[in-house]
Amino acid sequence: MTLRVVVADDQALVRAGFRMILTADGIDVVAEATDGAEAIEAVRRTRPDVVLMDIRMPELDGLEATRRILTGADGEPRVIMLTTFDLDHYVYAALTAGASGFLLKDVTPEHLVAAVRMVRSGDALLAPAITRRLVERFAQRETGPPAGHRELGTLTARELEVLRLLAQGLSNAELAAHLHLSEATVKTHVARILAKLGLRDRVQAVVLAYRTGLVTPA
């Protein structure tokens, strides 16, 4: 099936550039939006797999649009936030609102296409170390003292260990080497963690690990 994407950005050149890159790789850009309200309507109308959402837009920003789109959503769509700055203070809030990650607007064409495809399949969008740096910077400021998460009690000792290491920035290959497991086994552990905690992807797992105090900012 063709992967369907909505691009929401108030800059026409950004939208046009992303459309050109994505369509050249066989990805269908089903709608464009210039602000958050248009993005919500476009998602309702076209039911895309992935939304590329600018954070800073007029009328309704991308953060609030993401909250509204993902509230009550049953796994779809995945939202990738677009930002000019790699440590934009809105990004952490976007991740907690349910976004699957973020990209810089100067992303390479290859990385853009790969990110959209990875998010659609449920894989990690961001390099884990980038996610960790982001969460470490904003977790305490945004959430205050960590609150427990009752679902952590459903994880096995091995799954808790995997979650701790994942939140510290280890990739699947690094997890496998550290735990002396195959990458396939690591992927199975990660999938079970996400299912038990009701999370969309690894990015949300990292956020939860910091919010619950399972991992603390350095």
From TrEMBL:
CDD domains in UniProt: LuxR_C_like, REC_NarL-like
Residues carrying 4-aspartylphosphate: D54
Organism, scientific name: Actinoplanes octamycinicus
Domain of life: Bacteria
Gene Ontology biological process terms in this record: phosphorelay signal transduction system; regulation of DNA-templated transcription
Molecular function in Gene Ontology: DNA binding
InterPro entries given in the database record: CheY-like_superfamily, NreC/VraR/RcsB-like_REC, Sig_transdc_resp-reg_receiver, Tscrpt_reg_LuxR_C, WalR-like
Pfam families: GerE (PF00196), Response_reg (PF00072)
Keywords: DNA-binding, Phosphoprotein, Transcription, Transcription regulation
Domain HTH luxR-type: 148-213
Residues covered by the Response regulatory domain: 4-120
Protein name: DNA-binding NarL/FixJ family response regulator
Keyword flag Transcription regulation: yes
